Amino acid sequence: MLSPKPASAERRAALLQAAAQVAKNITTLRSLDELLPSAVDIICDAYNFYYAGVFLLDESRHWAVLRAGRGEAGRKMLEIGHKLEVGGQSMIGAAIAWREARIALDVGEEAVFFKNPYLPATRSEMALPLMVGENTFGAVTVQSVEEAAFSDEDISSLMAMADQLAIAIHNASLLHELERAHTALVRAKTYEALATATTQAIHWIGNKAQPLTSTVARMKADLDEDPLDLASLKEDLDIIAENARLIVDVRERLIGPGRDQTLRAALIPDVVQAAAFFNHIPAEKLSLEVAPDTPFGLTDTTQLARVLGYLFQNALEAQANHISATVTPTLDRSHIAISIADDGHGIAPEHKEQIWTAFFTTKGPSHAGLGLAAALTTLAQMGGRITVDSEPGKGATFTLVIPTAPDDEAIDLSHAPQNIFFVDEATDTWALFAANVLKLAGKNVAVQESPAGAAEADLILVDEALTTQPVMDIIEQLKEAGMTGKTVVVTAALDTQRAARYMKAGVKDVALKPYTYVGLAAFLNFEKE
User: 137 and 57 in contact (C-beta within 8 Å)?
Assistant: First the structure.
């Protein structure tokens, strides 16, 4: 009869160290895909065993499936989905079925033993069940090429280690179940919210469409009158136009956040300025403060400009006298915070949660109540978030947080056109960046607010957010000079209707502004063709 061998002092120290390492990994490695392979490696290294593996029960609880195995043998068994029957002819199956440790100091004498072709050198094996309370959910196998390889201390320390692993696996299982329940709850709430929003949308659009049908009927009747009441017809057309605008606006705010997003590095101050421009915020009403060395943000600039537009419009509707925008990196520079603060009416405490709900509004029937709901969804889809701080009578501060873009890298711009003319303010954030990069690349660059002097340029770039004169006036001047064929309107936020108007006027292209070396190189290469 073979007996367990005594343990040396050196081995006891190794066992204590291994137990400590497993305990540490249990607290730091949350994923079983990391924890279990780590555990089998520690067991083999510390005890100098031939092989160790961890089996977990499948959903049927009829099979123990290998989840981690040492070395090449373990890798091959994982690839084939190695599993053992619970209660079958294996020590793992027996340990799980009988809920007790199985130790074979000489596998040749063991009645219940699975001869594994991947582990032919095994001479002794220990199978330890993984249990918490009455729940058994797997087992650990430890194998050696020596007979009677396990000392009493090996057995006791490995059993303690198995208990630690069992608790960790049990906790991971509970966490997985919690996450699955949370996902199901979120899914159910999402469907509920979609159903509610859809019902509200149908109801709201129906209310707006009803006046259209009655107004059209009235106009048809008016057309039979002699003489025609032109003032009445104009009033009816205004009703149709306003209700149609509101319906289109609802469509945009409902569908807009669901569009595919193209995340790219961007100069966030330029996007803020563009959003203010497109929403007709007077220069004297807006201040913009940007922290030094603010990194590029990673965002879809068209979508971000739309979100900022909702906030600017809210500030105007709250009767704000001043709006301040600040752009700063977070302390770890992993994100950028954009704050839009106004001194308007503020938000009542009982409405702070409701404002994020679709179709909630306190502004009357002419407002859909979709801007902030769309902003919340859009930011979340871009990996960002939005919060609000407000008191009635003291204005509101909305803070958007978006990820920082990876660092830019210098790139060869020798292929770019030699003479490039910017129609833009000399202090514009984007113009300063692009012009400086091109000058460093040896290009001839001019930046001015009118197209005068652009005749010698190979490429003319017109900033859509130019504040000194309307872009269409610039395009008309270029058209008269025969230069629209080499003109590109650049923008922080693409709008299909505006772009179609510029293209119809004859410009070569309408494109998003490139904010990085790589983006600028790709843009100029495309426009050169």
Answer: yes
pLDDT of residue 185: 59
Residue 85: is it exposed, middle or buried by C-beta count within 10 angstroms (0-12/13-18/19+)?
A: middle
Angle value at C-alpha 29, between 26 and 32, nearest 5 degrees: 90
Instruction: Tally helices (H) and strands (E) across the chain.
Output: 13, 18
Neighbours of 325 (CB within 10 A): 23
- Residue 407 backbone zone (phi > 0: left; psi -120 to 50: alpha; other: beta): beta
Kindly give, in sequence order, each residue whose CB lies less than 8 Å from that of residue 310, ignoring residues fewer than 6 positions away.
371, 372, 374, 375
Q: Kind and range of the H or E element at 35?
A: helix 32-47
Q: What percent of the chain has pLDDT over 70?
A: 78
Alpha carbon 35 to its chain's center: 27
What are the angstrom distances between the C-alpha of 244 and each of 167, 202, 203, 223, 250? 62, 15, 15, 21, 10
- Give residue 363's pLDDT band: very low, low, confident or very high (50, 70, 90): low
3-class state of residue 301 by DSSP: helix
Helix (H, G, I), strand (E, B) or coil at 77: helix
The residues, any chain, with a CB within 8 Å of residue 413's CB and separated by 6 or more, are 437, 438, 441, 443, 517, 520, 521, 524
DSSP three-state, residue 29: coil
Q: How far apart are CA 493 and CA 264, in angstroms?
A: 13
Q: How far apart are CA 113 and CA 152, in angstroms?
A: 22
CATH class of 265-403: alpha beta
Which pLDDT value is given to residue 2?
46
Top pLDDT among 274 and 175 is at: 274
Q: Does the pLDDT at position 115 exceed 80?
A: no
CB 270 within 8 Å of CB 430: yes
Determine the topology of domain 419-528 in CATH: Rossmann fold (3.40.50)
Residue type, 435: A
**DSSP 8-state symbol, 356:** G
Instruction: Compare 272 and 157 and report the one with higher pLDDT.
Output: 272
Residue 424 per-residue DSSP state: S
Q: CB–CB of 29/37 below 8 Å?
A: no
Q: Report d(CA 298, CA 225) in Å as an integer.
A: 60
Structure-token match 């025609």, residue found? 228
Beta bridge partners of 527: none
CA distance 373 to 388: 13
Residue 291, pLDDT above cutoff 80 = yes
Q: CA-CA-CA-CA torsion for 295, 356, 203, 188, nearest 10 degrees?
A: 100
pLDDT score of 268 more than 80: yes
> Which CATH architecture does the domain made up of 9-179 adopt?
2-Layer Sandwich (3.30)
Cβ pair 166, 158 in contact under 8 A: no
Contacts of 24 (CB under 8 A, 6+ apart): none
DSSP assignment of 79-125: HTT-EEETTSSSHHHHHHHHTS-EEESSGGG-SS----TT-TT--EE
The identity of residue 109, as a single letter, is: E
